C-alpha cells in the first residue's frame, strides 16, 4: 500500500485500495493508527475506469468481513456533493472502534471541483470536533497524490491562516511534496488551491462577522 505521512498536522495520504490484499492493509492502517476519520476523494468508478474498490458497506443489517475486521454501517447522511458514513469497526475479540467516512463524490481525477463552497463545507465537517487525542486523518483518492495532496494543503493552510493571518502556499506545497512526492499533480489543482483558500477565508470572515 502506497502511503505518506505528513508530520505537521498528522495526515496520512494513501492510495485507494484496489485489491483484496490492499483493502485488508487499509483497514490495518486505520486500526493501528487509531484513525477516526477517513477522507475519500474519488469515486469507485470514473467513466469506465476503476479507481478504488469498495472497502465499506452500506448494509446496516449484516456488515462485511475484511480479514480479521468486521465493518458495520451505523448511520449514513447523503448530500449533493458528499456522503458521510458512520462505521463501527471490530476486530475479533478486540475493542470496537468508530470511524467516520467522509466521501466527496464530485471531484474527478486530474481535475478540480466545480463547487468551491461545497468543498469548504465538506472540509469543515471533517474538522468538526477533532481533538489532539484523535488519530491521524487518512486521506485518499485513487493514486493518493493529486486530489489528496490538494485537500491536505487546503485543510492545513485554512487552519494555519485562521490563526496566523498568513499562509505561504508555495512553501507549504514544497514541504508537502518532500513528504509525498508529486502531491498536487496539475497546474489546475495548484491554481484551484489558491481559489479555495480565498473562498475558505471569506466564509470564515463572514461567519465571524455574523457572530458580532
TrEMBL record:
The keyword Hydrolase applies. SMART domains: PTPc, PTPc_motif. Keywords: Hydrolase, Protein phosphatase. Residues 1-200 form the Tyrosine-protein phosphatase domain. PROSITE patterns: TYR_PHOSPHATASE_1, TYR_PHOSPHATASE_2, TYR_PHOSPHATASE_PTP. Belongs to the protein-tyrosine phosphatase family. This is protein-tyrosine-phosphatase.
Amino acid at each position: 500500500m502506497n502511503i505518506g505521512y505528513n508530520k505537521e498536522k498528522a495526515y496520512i495520504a494513501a492510495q485507494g485500495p484496489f485489491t483484496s490484499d490492499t483493502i485488508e492493509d487499509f483497514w490495518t492502517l486505520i486500526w493501528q493508527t487509531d484513525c477516526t476519520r477517513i477522507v475519500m476523494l474519488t469515486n469507485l468508478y470514473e467513466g469506465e475506469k476503476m479507481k478504488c474498490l469498495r472497502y465499506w458497506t452500506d448494509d446496516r443489517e449484516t456488515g462485511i468481513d475484511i480479514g480479521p475486521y468486521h465493518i458495520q454501517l451505523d448511520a449514513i447522511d447523503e448530500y449533493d456533493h458528499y456522503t458521510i458514513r458512520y462505521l463501527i469497526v471490530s476486530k475479533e475479540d478486540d475493542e470496537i472502534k468508530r470511524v467516520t467516512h467522509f466521501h466527496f463524490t464530485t471531484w474527478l481525477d486530474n481535475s478540480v471541483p466545480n463547487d468551491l463552497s461545497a468543498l469548504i463545507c465538506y472540509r469543515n465537517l471533517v474538522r468538526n470536533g477533532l481533538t489532539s487525542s484523535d488519530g491521524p486523518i487518512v486521506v485518499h483518492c485513487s493514486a493518493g497524490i493529486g486530489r489528496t495532496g490538494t485537500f491536505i494543503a487546503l485543510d492545513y493552510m485554512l487552519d494555519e491562516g485562521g490563526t496566523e493571518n498568513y499562509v505561504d502556499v508555495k512553501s507549504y506545497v514544497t514541504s508537502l511534496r518532500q513528504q509525498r512526492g508529486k502531491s498536487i499533480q496539475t497546474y489546475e489543482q495548484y491554481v484551484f488551491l489558491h481559489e479555495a483558500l480565498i473562498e475558505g477565508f471569506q466564509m470564515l470572515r463572514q461567519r465571524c462577522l455574523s457572530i458580532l
